[in-house]
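Weekly sync, protein design subgroup
Attendees: M.S., D.O., the rotation student, P.L. (late)

Item 1: inverse folding check
M.S. brought a backbone from last month's batch and wanted to see whether the design step gives back something sensible before we order anything. D.O. pointed out we never logged the input encoding, so this time it goes straight into the notes. Structure tokens as presented (99 positions):
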């Protein structure tokens, strides 16, 4: 007996892989502003610490927290709209995925 006969709403493996790729791309787009901000600030602080020989934990932590907060304030609206658009597109694709 075929699996399709048991589960008429089975999703194909191609559809699952396409959906997984879309999810990973959206996650990459949404995390990029935060990760790039933390990377740039971390590199700048690390360079400053190596030049001045100051090894203080809060010197690296506090600027990253402030920078990530600012990155969220600047790009938060875009991130929210991107996530909403992806969710709406996903819900629109549901009937075709379940055929």
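Designed sequence read out in the meeting:
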């Amino acid at each position: 007996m075929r699996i399709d006969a048991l589960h008429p709403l089975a999703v194909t493996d191609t559809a699952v892989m396409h959906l997984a790729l879309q999810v990973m791309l959206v996650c990459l787009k949404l995390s990029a502003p935060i990760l790039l901000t933390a990377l740039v600030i971390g590199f700048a602080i690390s360079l400053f610490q190596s030049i001045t020989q100051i090894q203080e934990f809060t010197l690296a932590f506090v600027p990253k927290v402030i920078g990530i907060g600012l990155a969220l304030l600047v790009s938060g609206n875009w991130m929210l709209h991107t996530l909403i658009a992806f969710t709406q597109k996903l819900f629109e694709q549901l009937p075709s995925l379940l055929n």
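Discussion: The helical segments are 3-6, 13-52, 57-97. Residues 3-97 form one domain.
Action: P.L. to compare against the previous round before Friday.
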